[in-house]
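[User]
If only I could read backbone structure tokens as easily as an amino acid sequence. I have put the entry right below:
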Amino acid sequence: MAVARTQTIQPHVLSGTVVSIETDISRGLHAFSVVGLAGKAVDEAKDRVSSAIKHSGFDSPKTKNQKITISLSPADLKKEGPLYDLPIAISYLLACGDITSNETKRAYVGELGLDGSVRSVKGVLNSVVAAKAAGFTEIIVPHANAAEAALVDGISVIPARTLTHVIAHISPRDEAVRITTQPTTELESGWFESAVQFEDIKGQESAKRGLLIAAAGRHNVMFVGPPGTGKTMLARALRGILPPLSRQEALEVTAIHSLAGGDIDISSRPPFRSPHHTASHTALVGGGSNPKPGEVTMAHHGVLFMDEFPEFERRSLDALRQPLEDRVVTISRVQGTAEFPADFILIAALNPYRGSEDGTQNLLRAMQETYKNKVSGPILDRIDLWLEVPHVDYETLTSLRTAEGETKRAREAVVTARKLAQARQSQNQELPSTNSNLSARNIEESIHLKDEVKDILKNSSAKLNLSPRSYHRLLKVARTIADLDDSEHIETQHVLEALQYRVPL
């Protein structure tokens, strides 16, 4: 009996690692061992594999006097999850000579049921992307995961329902039994039709204007106002005016959600995540002994809405510094460091009007008095737009819905502004595609201010005590406002409007 080898892909966030499964069978008392830093789910695979092989028409490994050794390489990589079941079963059948197959360019991913069925696993899309990058030409995946796997072109995706079907496919006596390759999956495109649209929100014109700016430049927003004034509605309406994701962005989002498990939305819609304020630090930011992504990564290329912002754990809020600045979150552990993408629009909301629901208090004073010990200054400094959401008067609240087409006009304005930013990027490849991602160097090189604008900025910086970070964020917002006005240069009115959205700290 010779050593048989199959290969699988252990998924990570937006990547994966090729793992070789080697099986050696020798005579002796029955033993079945898995080596190579296997986790609990992988170690238990030997029982699932034995039963699946038996119900697929072959002798169970447990009925033979054989010493079976399964080696997972690289040996220093922690192996987790049930995706190893299928490649282990195929590797065993090859080693004992029950089947023959050429395994040089083929990978396997799938959990096995006791009856031999192939069940879905997490992170299949990540595995397929990594398999293609590693030079594999074919990957066999569970039938339930085939649609997401087929989002990747350039590699044959084989949807498998049972172990018997897989064996018939790789070692066919008749070509007719081969499993048909899964056709390429097309992304559902188009704008996201939110349950809440701009037309549904009466009044709050200033807040809607702020959301338009946020969508055009991907700026962070803080809603401030008493309970019940529509802050949550405004946040949910933002998703409806965000442009559909590009194919690459949609693949990244789908890959992240595939790894997390649950229902996967195979579409170009930006994600919207709204964690409760009781969410743990790990749930929000990510982490664990074997680091997993949190809500900030699940919101990648979309919106992270944090209602009752100051009620989150202080350390969780402080951990937002890195993703808000660098668009990634880094989780460091003794075993190593993991870096997860976290490019999202933060929409936060707070209610500073404790004991004064009429909204007559000074915004800044109320905010400082209520939350000064709950949210750190560096976090507040990373908010681009501070939008007050006051009570709406009775006449406005009971008025007829007359602003039809408001959402459509907002979408058109956002698209136009984004195109202007992308046009600047095409002229200078060092510039990012959205204004919120402009670095300090980008601002100095690409934004040229008139003398009267410089004078306003000088006086404002002194009066508002703007930090360098606040100053740069102010210019980014002004640049977005100018794009919405289809203006090549930042004018006085653009800076003045941007100043309205800054709160001195």
Q: What stands out?
A: Residues 355-360 have pLDDT under 50 and may be disordered. The CA atoms of residues 222 and 314 lie 17 Å apart. The domain at 4-177 is CATH 3.30.230.10 (Ribosomal Protein S5; domain 2).
